[in-house]
Amino acid sequence: MIKNLRGKALLMDPTQTKSTGFTREEREIYGLRGLLPYDVASMNKQIDRVLGSLRAKSSAIEKYIFLNALLERNQRLFYRTMIDHIEEIMPLVYTPTVGEACKEFAHIFRKPQGFYITPEDRGDIASLLKNWPDQDIRIIVVTDGERILGLGDLGANGMGIPIGKVALYVACAGINPAQCMPVMLDVGTNNQFIREDPLYLGYPHPRIAGDTYRSLVDEFVHAAQQCFPDALIQFEDFLTPHAFEFLERYCNTVRCFNDDIQGTAAVTLAGIYSACRITHKNFSDLKVMFLGTGSAAGGAAELITDAFCAAGLNRSAAQKRLWFIDRKGLVTTMSENIKPRIQAYAHVYPAYDFVDAIAAIKPDVLIGATGVPGTFTEAVVRKMAAVTSRPVIIALSNPTSHTECTAEQAYYWSDGRAIFASGSPFPPVQYGDQVFKPGQGNNAYIFPGIGLGIYASAARLITPSMFLAAAHVLADIVTEQELSSGAVYPALPRVREVSLAIATAICHIADREGLTDRQLPEDVSGYIKSLMYAPNY
What we know:
This protein has 537 residues and is α/β, with parallel strands linked by helices. It folds into 3 domains: 1-41, Up-down Bundle (Hemocyanin, N-terminal domain), CATH 1.20.1370; 92-254, 3-Layer(aba) Sandwich (Rossmann fold); 262-444, Rossmann fold. Helices cover 45% and strands 10% of the residues. It has helices at residues 7-12, 24-29, 43-55, 60-73, 75-84, 86-93, 97-103, 105-108, 125-129, 160-173, 192-195, 210-227, 240-250, 259-279, 295-310, 315-319, 354-361, 378-387, 407-413, 447-457, 464-476, 480-484, 495-512, 524-531; strands spanning 115-117, 139-143, 180-185, 232-235, 256-258, 288-291, 322-326, 329-330, 365-368, 392-395, 419-422, 429-431, 434-436, 439-440. The strands form 3 sheets. The chain has a 7-stranded mixed β-sheet, sandwiched between helices. Helix 19 (407-413) links the parallel strand 10 (392-395) and strand 11 (419-422). Helix 4 crosses helix 7 (97-103), helix 17 runs parallel beside helix 18 and helix 21 (464-476) runs antiparallel to helix 23 (495-512). The chain starts with 6 loop residues before the first helix and ends in a 6-residue tail after the last helix. The model has no long low-confidence stretch (mean pLDDT 96).
C-alpha cells in the first residue's frame, strides 16, 4: 500500500515505486502524470529490461554494481528478478561475486546500506540503533569483517556480507526487507593494505582486542535486544575463536546463531545424508575426514556427531568416526596445539600426511574447509577413489578462487565416481556419457528457513536440534532425478520451498521444546506461507 508519498518523491522511494509500472489510474491519483513515459510496463517487461542490461555487462563485479543499484532504486523489482532467476542472480549477489565486491567495497561504494558501529560509539549503541528507519526488526546479520569468506580481514569492507545475507533472507525465505538489518561492527582492521587505502571508509585503526573488543560486542548484543526484542541475531564471518566464544556466550540467553558454524554444519550434514541415498550406505557406518580445523569444520563435526548419536551411536563412538587433517597432517593425540573444539577428534593413531591418512583410515566422506585453493590435489582425490567406490567430496571454501578443487577435477580424478558438492557454484560436467550437476552446499538452503521459522514461531532460542532437523528436511526434499545427476541438494529455484519446509519443522520444534508462548495454528505451513514477502506490484 502506498503511503504519504506523491509525485517525484514516490517515484524515488525504492520501497514503494513501481517506476513505469504505475497504472493510468495510479498516475492520476499520485500526481505522476507527465513524470513517466507513456507505456505502462508490466513487471515482466521490467524484468526483461533488467536482464537485458545485466547480461550486457562484461564482468561479475559490474553486474553486482548494477544489481545493487537496482535494489537501491526499486526494491520489489530487484527481489522479483532475483527470485525468478535465482540461479543467475544469486552468484552475483552473494558467493562468489560478493568476495570481489567486499575487496572493492570502498571503491564501488554508491549509497549507504546497513548500520555501522565503531569503538567511538561505545556507551551510545542503544541510542544509535534508534536511528535505523525501521523498528520491527526480525533479522540482524552482523559481522566484524575479520574473516570474510576465505579472504581474511577486510575490515569495514566486509559489510558486503551482511548486505548479501539479507538479500538471501528476503529472496530465499520471504522475510520482509523492512524487517532485516545488516550490521558492521567496525572495530578496525589489521590489514594494513586496506587500512592505508585512501578510499577506505572504515575505522582507520588496528583492530581493538581483548576485553575492549568483547565489551563492545556485548554492548551491541544487549542494545539490539533492547531496541529490537523480536530480532534474531546472526553472527557472520567472525574469526574462529571469537565465533565459538560468542556463540557459547549468548546461545542460552539470546535468540542467535552463527551461520559459519551452524548453517555450514547443517548444509554439510544434509549433503552427507543425500549422498547416502546414492551410495546406499548406512549413515551411522560412515567415516568422515575434515581438511581444516576452523569454525566451519568444527561446527560441522559437532553437528555430525549429534547426528551419529541420533542414529544410535554413543558420543564416544560417534566422535571416533570423525578425523581431522591440519597443516601438519593427521591430528592425533600426539599432535601439538590442538584447538579445543578438535580435541575430541584427536585419536590415538600414528602420524600420517594427508594422502597416507586417507589410505589408512579409508574415509567415506572428505570435507574441505580450509580457504586454501587446490588442497584436494589429484593424489588426494585418486586416493579417495581408491579406498571407496563412491567417494563423497565436499569442497566448502568460498569464493570459487579458494575452493579445494573444482567439480571437473573431482569427477575426472575419480573416474566419474565422486559425489561432489561445493560451497561455490560450478557448471555441469560431462564425463563419458554422464552429465553431472554438482550440488552447491550453500548456506542459503539453511539459514533463511531457520530465520523464517524463528520469526513464525517467536521461539526464544535457537537450538542444535533445529539445525539437525533442517539438515534432514533439506536432504529429504532432494528428488531421485536430482540424485541421479549427482546433485545432493535440490535445484536452487526450489529454495523457497526448502525454506518453508525448514521453517515448518522449526515451528514444531519450538512448540515441542517449550521455546515459544505462541499458539501455532493447525496448518503451520499455511500460516508460515502467509507471512512470506512476495515482491509484486
